[in-house]
Every structure is written in C-alpha cells, then in structure tokens.
Amino acid sequence: MPSRRTFLQSSLLAAGAAALPRGFAQIRASGAKVVSTWDFGVPANQAAWAVLGKGGSAIDAVEAGARWAETGQCNSTVGRCGYPDRDGHVTLDASIMKGDGSCGAVAAIEGIDHPISVARKVMEKTPHVLLVAEGAQQFAVSEGFKVQDLRTPEAEKAWKAWLKTSKYQPEINVERRSLPGNSENHDTIGMLALDKEGRMAGACTTSGMAWKMRGRVGDSPIIGAGLYVDDEVGGATASGVGEEMIRNAASFLVVELMRQGRSPADACREAIERVVHKRPAASKELQVCFLAMNKDGQVGAFALHKGFVYAVCDASKQDALLPSQSIYTTDRT
Ligand code: SD4
C-alpha cells in the first residue's frame, strides 16, 4: 500500500511528465551503453566509454569514439589512413546526430583528420546540416582545424598497385581481424550511444569506398542513410556499400520500423530484406550492414553477408564483440 507521501510524489511526477515538452518525458533510468560497427568498434567504444562511464553525454561520447577511429588507429577505411579515390585524393565523410534531431555532416572533405568534429561544428555553429568539399574545408580552417596531407605511404602504395588494373569492384566486407592484408575496400565506423539521462546520439565516419570516383559521396554523411537517431525511438547506423543505404533511406527506415514496435534486430533485418527486394542480383555481390539500439538500450544488427561484427560496451563489459546474423550465410572468406 503506497503511503500518502509516495502516492503524492508519483501523482506529481505523472502530472509533471504530462506537462513536459515532447521528448523530455522519454528520460529513463536505463544504463549508459555504446555500440559500434566492426572490430575496431571495441577500442572506439572504450574511448566513448571514458566519457559515458563518468556520466558524460551521448554526444560527447560518440564524438570521442569516432575521433579515436579517425586517428587512434591506422586503417584504410576511416580518417587519417583512409585509402584515396581513383585520382589519389583522400576524401572523408562524417555525420553526427543527437536524439533531439540536431545534426551536422561533412562530405568529401580533404586534408582534415577529424571530420567528425567538423560535423559537430556544422551542427552547433551553422544554420546548415551538410557542408561539402572545399566549403567544408574552409569552414574547418575557420574553426581552427589544420590542413594536412592525409595520404600515408601505405595508402599511396595500395593506390599505385590498384592503378595497374584500375578495376573498381566493391568487395564483400568480412571480419577484418580474420583477414590480415585483405583486399576489401570499405569499412566504416558507425556508433550509437545512450547516456544515463536517456539521451541518444550517433556518429558515422569514413573515407568511403577506396578508389571511388572523384566527388563520390556515400551514405555516412547523409542523415537518414548512414545514421539516424531519435530519442523517442532509438538510433541506427550503417556500413557497407553506401549507395544501397541512400537508395533506401536505410537508417531512417530502421528507426521507423522500431517506432512501429520492431526490435532493433528485426528492424535491421527488414531493412536488409528491402535492399535485397529492390536489387536482388546486386545484393549478392555487395555488403550492407545495419546496427541499431533502441531507447531502452536493446541492441540488434543484421547484414546482407556473413562477416559483420559489432561491438557493445556498457558498465558490465567494455569489450564485447558480437557476430551479426545475415541473409546470405555462405562463408566467402
Ligand atoms: C560508404 N558506407 O562510403 C561507406 C563505406 C562503408 O563499409 O561503410 N564501408 O559507402
């Protein structure tokens, strides 16, 4: 039997919640959590957890995690060590989004090693959502970012080797750890975080498809394609051949499916089925992967092909790496 005092308290809370602005009533007591794509998601999550675990905000956490992926490692698919386009230019794409709908992005930016932080500045300091190419770089410089040569000797070597055949063929991603020296030409970090206040945020950053045409922009900086977050529902992010995500407004689709009551895993699966339904033949040859987390911290993923892994980090465990289910299950490694 509740005492009069607790009854009054809960009545007041209920009345207060009804009067709160939309979104505020979503604040929950669930634990903080961060998830991200691929095996490099484990250390990236840990960089995000350094913020989240101390009670920091989801947006600060995803920026910290994505920044780690951009420069804390040297891999051919994100940030400083990204492989160039077919003309030898390293061009980077990134987006960031808060669950209240604020977002910012940069596409085809050159010479800036933390595009995710430029995306955040676009969100916070401009009336725009997306800046591209020279304009994005000019804005970054005005915000104090330094222009540097991002093409590493390793990337240069790989590009010169590729020039011998100049064959552009996106390959199916597999778990990178299982393939040292593999020849796949894409991977991206997509990260979603839930903080202890129940706020969500996401970040997505990539050098895009290696050997892409000059000017090609993928899904990662396109809000709704490579990333979408809504505090009322949850968030989704993507990795793989971005043209498929753009065609299907895929991360938005995953979030809208969760809004209709699907679990994160079911929503990701249905979005993958949509990709297959639209282009059945093409879907056999390319990889598409979705990762989602709902506002209650439930996590799910699904991919077209075997090999996608995702990292999950919360107070109980900071280094979980889980395999995603996929439509096609043949081992292509
Ligand atoms: C793109 N989606 O530029 C990115 C690349 C990627 O796994 O995610 N690769 O299309």
What can be said about this structure in brief?
It is built from ten helices and 13 strands. The longest helix has 16 residues, at 4-19. It has a single domain (24-328), classed as Glutamine Phosphoribosylpyrophosphate, subunit 1, domain 1, CATH 3.60.20.30.
- Name the CATH architecture: 4-Layer Sandwich
**Structural class, judged by helices and strands?**
alpha+beta
By CATH reckoning, the class would read Alpha Beta
Q: What general form does the structure show? A: globular
Topology, pairings included?
Blueprint: H1 4-19, E1 33-37, H2 41-52, H3 58-71, E2 92-98, E3 103-109, H4 115-125, E4 130-132, H5 133-142, H6 153-163, E5 189-194, E6 200-206, E7 227-230, E8 234-240, H7 242-247, H8 250-259, H9 264-278, H10 280-283, E9 288-294, E10 299-305, E11 309-314, E12 320-323, E13 326-328
Parallel strand pairs: 3-4, 10-13
Antiparallel strand pairs: 1-5, 1-11, 2-3, 2-6, 5-6, 7-8, 8-9, 9-10, 11-12
The chain binds N-hydroxy-L-asparagine.
